[in-house]
Prior knowledge:
The chain is of the alpha+beta class and 394 residues long. It has helices at 12-20, 63-70, 113-134, 138-143, 151-159, 208-225, 231-246, 322-326, 337-347, 354-368, and strands at 26-33, 39-43, 56-58, 74-75, 80-82, 85-96, 99-108, 164-167, 170-177, 185-192, 195-203, 252-260, 265-271, 277-280, 284-287, 307-310, 316-320, 377-384.
Amino acid sequence: MQASHTATLERLPQLIADHAAPAGMYDTAVFLVDVQETVLRELTGRGLDGGEGGQEFTVSGSLPGQAYQRVELLPESTRVRVGDGARRRWWVAITDGVERLGVLRADTDTDDEPVRRALRDLASMTALLLLSKRSFSDSYARLVRTEPMNVAAEMQWNLTPPPAYAGHDATVGAVMEPAYQVGGDAFDYAVAGHTLHLGVFDAMGHDTTAGITANVAVAACRNARRQGATLAETSREVERALIEQFDARRYVTAILADLDMESGRLTWINRGHHLPILIRDSRWTSELACPPAGPMGTGLGLPITMATEQLEPGDRLLLYTDGIVEARDARGVEFGRDRFVDFIRRHHSGRHTLHETLRRLMTAVMEHHDGKLDDDATVLLTEWRGGHQQELIP
């Protein structure tokens, strides 16, 4: 950690290797996952993307991909020959909390529990080092992209918080597609004390202006919220900012919510958006009703209703935009709300983490739509554990 303070991203592979070897971990390598979580690319520290000459593995169908998906420490079945001996090769997920950044490879002479613990510790340190360089590294941005990104998507990915969070009895996961051409969708979450603020936004249109509109909406939301505004007051400030900038020519629908992570009490308002969906016991599902106040930016002046719901431990809350349920296949059949909810229930019933469920969901949505969506599709999934903090991280 001390040696990393003045190191660039490109220096990290060698820095990690130099410090890992004296601790009995050899031939280390760092692999970063791409924006859509489909491939793992080696960070070599060479070239414009920091990955020149590196290996690449698919998330689906490879051992490194399994370690990433399952967030587990996995050994290769055959040992690596070194001189007259052999070493065990390991793959371990690189995570910050529950945000998955990629995988770490390392070879060891033994495979006892202290070695396994050291590998996990090294992966955790690697995550912190990567995060400390990510925000100002164009090499990082290039390495995790598999195709060019439009201006609107560039804005949206810089706007949003990390796609995963866990703490204080709550877990949050989010996905956005199409990752490289997303226009007016955005999600937001933040923690203040024991309150988890949540929001999903869908701006009119699917272009750079839609991206600018969503940026103004999220920025105005954060600004009001950080000054102590209520949900209703926050949405009015968003509306004021949008009308001030666009003169009622652009609007944004949204669900804004607050979750008390100690009690499980959820409050939310509906600004012309799809209603939240509550999943309980992986069986019972309901839409949480709340009269809409109209999209922000239209100036309709409709009353804003504050709705409440008491969550139970294990409840999952789904906030989403219409691109998820309205994605159509070649025959014009929509992915649909029922298929969407059923997918979440089936894949997150103990077999996968919340974040792996969302990765698989978006893969299914993209495949249903032949790999190209007509509209932005965003999901923000929150799970309240209610006193089971130890279960947040795999």
